[in-house]
Specification:
252 residues; globular; mainly alpha
Length: 252
Amino acid sequence: MVFDIILLFTAAFVAGALNSVAGGGSFFSFPALLFTGLDPKIANATNTVALWPGSAASVGAYRRELSTQRSAVKQQALVSLVGGLVGALLLLVTPSSIFRLLLPYLMLGATLLFTLSPRINALVRRADIRRATPTDTRVRSVLLQGMISIYGGFFGGGIGILMLATLALMGLENIHEMNALKTLLATLINGIAVVTFAAAGAVAWPQALLMAMGAIVGGYLGAAVARRLNPKWVRTFVIVVGFALSAYLFVR
């Protein structure tokens, strides 16, 4: 019991610190819940609840950038909420046995997205979007955001990377404005999922509350340490852990 408490708090602390610097925090918090014996579906829902307060709190830091993106917010907010709700409901109706089979592939996919994110974003930025009409761009971005939101409500690993690519396709270039919009949309996706999971009784609340505290402390204190490290080392560490956990899930 004491070991579980220490493990969950520490994993959430690391997750909060990483999410504030490089992302990939779920690669630590979600497996920790699995290691304590939670059902994978409950662990996934609980992880979403535990990390959501940190995401919501970070939106406030982007108030200035968001004020210049009101049209994009209006365009993407509703589809994010609807998609997040659909994804959360899909998770709830998916049998635990099926989700357990999907889990290694979901974790591996999220790890690959994190690993390849610099190349993905570079390729998207080099794509020629000038030929697309404003209507084409708007429809394409809404469809892509809808699919990302459904995936986010269902599992969520790598949605930040996918959203940055979508925002680049919309023509956004300022990375601070893109991060602001990405953070807000991710908060909406996970927020509606949190409400859905809570209403369905799919959350292990003692673990969720403990990890929420760890993630908040990690976001404030751990980030100060993480920022002193070489970002490449932090990313490499997350990637190695992600692939190791994927391999573990495949052979367990």
